[in-house]
Amino acid sequence: KYDFIWAVFTDPDRVQHFFWKDMDPHHPRHTAEGAKLFAKAIDDIWVRDDQILGELLDALPEDATVMLLSDHGMDAIYRQVNLANWLPRTEMPQWLKTDAIPKLLITNGLVHHWVTGQVPGAADREVFLDKFVALCQGLVDPTTGVHPFESLLRREDIYTGGLVEKA
To answer: What is the pLDDT of residue 24?
Structure first.
């Protein structure tokens, strides 16, 4: 009796993030104990979700249109930059106190910022972004010596249209 139904399976994402290390013997956080307890957690969640999806598909009329999407693939994360931990240890907090009054939120590795205040000589947002990008460009993994960012892009570099400012 419905024209549209949307179902979201968030469990594969969560399980893969938290239990990849237990399945992957090459992961730096892999332990024998974790492998013993959770090595099959990812496979098990995919089998369970596949069973649920099968039941949902069986319940649909034959002429139903079905779309299956994924928000991203999955692979091991051996190292990562945690912006919420790293950024406060840089000169950025003092710079922000002195030069701008930001509202700053970090989620999933993305920095969301709303800069207000008076930074002499330029638009506050541009000065903030220049400062942030410079800090990121200078970051090097102390263990591997590798620069962790493949690219540093502003919203204008990747989006177009009338709502770019909301990106």
So the answer is: 96
